[in-house]
User: Fold this.
Amino acid sequence: MPNTLNPLELIARRWQPSARFVQRAALATVVMAVIIVITGGAVRLSQSGLGCSTWPRCTPDSLTPTAAMGINGLIEFGNRMLTYVLCAVVGLFIIAARARAPRRRSLTRLGWAQFWIVMGNAVVGGITVLTGLNPYIVSAHFLLTTGLLTVAVVTWRRACEGDEEPRDVVVRPVRQLSWVLLAATAVLTLVGTVVTGTGPHAGDAKKVHRIPLDWQEITQLHVDFVYVVVGLTVALWFVLRAVKAPAAPRRAVLELFGCLLLQGVIGYTQYFLGLPEIVVGLHMFGSALVWIAVLRIVLALRERGPLPVVPAPAGDEEAPAAQPAAATAAAGR
Assistant:
């Protein structure tokens, strides 16, 4: 009996996407992860967190929102529907990565990792509704989205480079400083979710449970970590200049510094204006940009060589899958 090919193998035999297409599909997963952060914030800030009263249905008797539920039901249900769009984008990347020759299992594994994070976060989102917007579950929901964004950025980078063993482009202590910066930013993000859980924007018009901590004290702790991250960013930039690091990581550090400055302006604006919803939403968007910028620094401090070459037809010389310079530009290096 002949072996039965799985659908991905069948597609791979009939379609050969370009390296640029795979890279753009990977970038699309990053964009969709950021959009999910923004729309999730919109649900909370518009008091639509319980726009659909249950999960996985919108109401006990309806899969979709009813007219009586108003705009909040539409916002909550729309955010749920974006999960399917996100799955479609991740699925497109998985198919493109699988069809691209030579096959790179590292890329397809990263694509499937994104898919399962999305599935897990959908369940956590449902638990968030079923628990009446428990602030701890809401925080976990956001952190899982940040995890998705992390894998998406790594996937994008890997789609633009080869599969050789990673090599440091700077001495190891400098790489270690970048990891300290990454860890500090992770703590900053975690504390930010606690600020959200203690603050006034609970995600629903009625009074719901909040984390029993002093909001102003947690906010001050959040600001303290901002200063730590800014200080580490400045220190890393000077260190990179001192060791004559390549231009790409130094540029990535400047991009992070710009994001931090913008985020600081937004943060102080929302604090002094009494947390207006639109400014809080911009702050959430800024947090996603800061996290992407930090990841790009860490990833820019090592390299894996050029993209693998595409096998050429018999009698022809092998052609490169993509010029290393193009791959480097696409990855933001």
Summary: Strands lie at 167-168, 302-303, 309-310, 319-320.
